[in-house]
Amino acid sequence: MTITDVKQHCFSYLLEVHFSDGYRQLIGYEMLRVYSPNATVVPQGLSKPPLVTAKAYVKIFKSQYDENKLDILFDDGHQSGSYSVGYLRRLCEEQDQLWLDYLARVRYAKQLKDNAISLVISD
User: Fold this and answer.
1) Is 100 exposed, middle or buried (0-12, 13-18, 19+ CB in 10 A)?
2) Which three-class secondary structure state does DSSP give residue 64?
3) 20, 2 Cβ separation under 8 angstroms
4) Please, where are the H alpha helices in 1-123?
5) Residue 88 · residue 70 · CB < 8 Å
C-alpha cells in the first residue's frame, strides 16, 4: 500500500488522502496535529504522550509526500515528523475512535480544546 495523492481543503481544514488500493479519506488538520508522529512520542517516565490542545484552527503551512510517507509543517511551527503510510492509514481508518479518546483526555485534564489560551482565575 502506498500514498497516491494528498489534497488540502483549506477552507474546511481537511486533508484528503488517497491510497493505492483505492481507499481515500478526509482527515482534519487538528487530528493530524494532535496525533502527529512528533507529538505522540512518549517521554521517559510517562505512560502517554503529552496532551496537545488549542489546535482547533491550526493550518498546514507546507506538506510534502511520496508513496511511503507524508511530512507536514503546521502554521504553529510544529514539524510533524513523517507520517508513515501505515500510521496515516491507521489515523484515517480509526479517526472516530481516536478522536473520542483525544476528547476524553482533554476532559480528564480539564483543558479547553479550542481556546488558544487557557485562563485560570483565582479569588
Assistant:
1) exposed
2) strand
3) yes
4) 29-34, 85-93, 95-108
5) yes
Q: In the structure grid, which three cell numbers stand for residue 52, read together?
A: 496537545
* Best CATH choice for the domain 3-108 from the list 3.30.2020.30, 3.30.2350.10, 3.40.50.970, 2.130.10.10: 3.30.2020.30
Considering the entire predicted model, what is its pTM?
A: 0.79
So what's the pLDDT on residue 121? Answer: 44
List of long-range contacts for 32-36, beta carbons under 8 Å, 24+ apart: 32/60, 32/72, 32/80, 32/83, 32/91, 33/58, 33/74, 33/76, 33/78, 33/80, 34/102, 35/91, 35/98, 35/102, 36/72, 36/74, 36/78, 36/80, 36/81, 36/83
Question: Rounded mean pLDDT of 52-63?
Answer: 85
